[in-house]
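Quick start: read one record
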Amino acid sequence: MSVGLLGRKVGMTQVYDEGGNLIPVTVMRVGPCIVLQLRTVERDGYDAVQVGFEDKLRRLAHRSERGHVANIGSRRQRALADSVELSVKAECEPQRFIREFRTYGEDHGCEVGQTLTTAIFSDVPYVDVIGTSKGRGTAGVMKRHNFSGQRASHGVKRVHRHGGSIGMSADPSRVLKGTRMPGHYGHTRITVRHLKVVRVDDQNHMLVVKGAVPGPRSGLLMIRHTNKFV
């Protein structure tokens, strides 16, 4: 099955492998995820499986979020029932985190309303983890780009952490694109590929991988089958 799962980052720790070696790992709480929709080429122009993670309180959910997962008998649904084939609903609670996993064809073996667990990774040696990195706001060049800064000797006045010159004078008379300067740092989508699966605990919905994954503790993650083979 090429469909991935959604989860949260629990934290990092260390475990021993079978050879007695101590390896750093990241523990993630993955699933259970509910299949909400099946995208097809005929209907949507592409093939994908849409899954949801974590129930959202119904009193906090919008009506559109409720109608996305269950048949609430809205006026629009009744108006479209005669002219358009309505999609099948999962008949579950509104989901807090919803993402899609692209597939190739309809051989993914999923059905709307099906519950996916970490059991789909039981025989998978490596996975890709997608998350949002920690946001650090507006940062300078030393923190953002690892600049060494200027000297702390005599004559250097209050520019110790500055980036220095950013361009030429007469030619080309402009700042080149891509010049490393201060700015927004972090809070971007990052994919860490080819992480080794160390342990799969389907009973407690836990997945342990070797190495670090992006984002803070309790950050939302996407875990998918890797397509990188080395």
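Helices lie at 41-44, 63-69, 75-80, 141-144.
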